[in-house]
Amino acid sequence: MEELKWVPSTVDVTRPSVARMYDYYLGGSHNFEADRAAAKQVEQHFPGVAQSAQANRSFLRRVVRHLVAQGVDQFLDLGSGIPTVGNVHEIAQQDNPDARVVYVDFEPVAVSHANALLADNPNASAILADLRATSSVLKGAREVLDFSRPVGVLIIAALHFVPDSDKPYEAVASYLADLPSGSYLAITHASWDSLSDDERAEATEIKKIYNSSDNALTMRTHAEVTRFFDGMDLLEPGVVAVNDWRPDFYEDRTGIYGAVARKP
Under CATH, domain 53-194+217-262 is a member of which superfamily? Predict the structure, then answer.
């Protein structure tokens, strides 16, 4: 068993974590043997999973820079995972050193490491909480963010780990209700819309692997992902593959939808 100082004693490193698996896909170092083993099983069924994770992170970078250019200087990153390999505060503060960021995750390793990273950064912090616990999250976020001014809410590759029974649409709507006009919502969400029959068979195996981790998968269609933005003004080009959202360069298309919308 790996013993590292940034790992809380309550963490079971023998059980795969989606946050640490994602860190592995991004080339990070904050993952354990159980995470790597599960991630490699996924790669056997979906060889492009690491490229998809990297495309997702590239989308996040473009979105944060776009929002900073629009004058947004505070961000709430829900289901943030382990904030390494191009995290929000680094991107935002590169363009605006005064930008404020609150990371939220229910993974103790993610939050523990985030707070270690942010120890010398007065404008960024991490909260240990489940994004579904909206009241608790908003209470903690208000200690850093000013909710009388626009906020950029980021829910990147997190909602496909929230089943319908946990009311994800209501959770997102609850966050938006507390935000002032001019705030933004950015979401990415995995989907099987474009899969062939053979690929769907492989996807079923992938779902089994994630079901053995701390979060099961709930894939949604284009229409179901679009529903998260009800009542908001979608930015062009709408809900598209993350690679097609204002790309810097051509990348192979991935099965992850991404979009950004503004609260009127």
Answer: Vaccinia Virus protein VP39 (3.40.50.150)
